[in-house]
Amino acid sequence: MLGRALPLLTLTFVIGCGGGGSSGGGASTAAGATAGTTTSPSAAIADVTSVRLPGASVLAGDVPVVFSVADPAGAPATVAVSYSVDGGASWHTATPAATSPGLSNLATGPAPGVEHTFIWATATDIPGLAGAHVRVARVGAPGQTADVAVVDNAPLNTAVRLNRRPYLQLTTQTSTIVCWRTEADTDSVIEWGPTPLLGQVAGNPGARAKSHDVEIVGLQPGTTYHYRVSSGGRPVTARGTFTTAPASNVADFTFLAFGDSGTASPEQLALGRRMATEQADFAIHTGDVIYPYGALANPVGEYNERFFRPYEDFLDRLPMFPVIGNHDLIALLGQPFKDVFHLPDNGSSIAKELYFSFEWGDAKFIALETTGLFLVPVGDHARWLQQEIQSNTKKWLIVYMHIPLYSCGSHGDNVVLQHVLGPQFENGKVDLVIAGHDHNYERTRPIKQFNRDPSYPGLVHVITGGGGAGLRGVNPNSRTAVAVRAHHYMKFRVQGDEIHGEAIDLNGQVIDAFTVQNIP
Length: 520
Known about the structure:
CATH architecture of the largest domain: 4-Layer Sandwich
Number of domains: 3
Strand order of the largest sheet: 20-21-22-23-25-24-26
């Protein structure tokens, strides 16, 4: 559902440069700027020479205001601290916290002066959310002003209990979907904006639901935005961030990949913690999200336990694009999977979300359901895949799926998939194939089974099926470059004409690193 974007607050911040006056003087800075420092180092000055505030983007509670006072004669000074929430049009005396030192008879010295700290009780002066800046001035002198990005003392709405923390879906260059679940029926509202000040609202204040999906539109490519869940006009969660897909010509981004994870095993949880420390742009899952029956018995509870809680520390900032696995299909042909995830439209009403494609910068990703559908070489799905490959204009073309074409693991090769998909992949200049299903890690040498062009280098196939389920053995063959029986996830860095891949185990060790060159 899409809510109307509403302006919340628009402010202009001014950094004073010692010019005096109620406006603070000086140049303006954006509402999302970090807390600044203003300094006036003249040796002859008898005034406040600098003011600095904590560098956090959002300040709350008791905030230290650090300032320096100079006087060539070393005479003691008395200063005043004031704040403005209207761009410097009006100023108010800042309330000191109980632990704050006094502001009278302060020690001074030659410039840059002697440093002091005032503790500002922001919750008393700004009980909600506002942009502000702070001025410290010696009595009878102009003083200095430093801006604050955001002061936010709005209390969380603890009456609203989350059943599932926010997670991102279907992020594009200009939109994203924020999803979450609540224990009881509530409204569906997201506060968001390009800075921590937020300022925009999306969703449906009149909704009454437990499952929430709010689309945010009108965004700019490659831009980071701040957001939080709200209910009844009060915040429910702390701020999160998301970043939109980059411009179409950008071939510099990072994504994570893993699969065969959904058991809530200690290994899955450990990998989840490691992935949460990675700096990436999005993640893909190679299937078998929920074992053993795709959350057939308890869709909400099993998805919470075996997917959302293990990854909740990064799902709120990295959009996830999973492909369905054979265990996920057991549950009503994947209905719980379809209910949880928002995936790109493939134009099919019957096989909706079972296969799809999306673009990220100068790369195209194609996800295929290879348990059954793409074993069949004819039909709407086959025509769709042919068109997706033939119409690709991106530098990079990456395909991912659950059942692999080639494997030295316990399931082994799938000869039908090799003959149905192999010619299209090799002749269609697919750059990389990523799969799961076998519970291990494997990378093949470049495979050239169907392409007869002597200049064609072959296609690398990777299996990442060590996401948390029980491991199985490997039996390397002549096609195998690396095969390891290990729990792991993968990190891919797309950079210009190269993809740098790493497989990372439970201990954070890189068990394989490789580079794939773009096929021109």
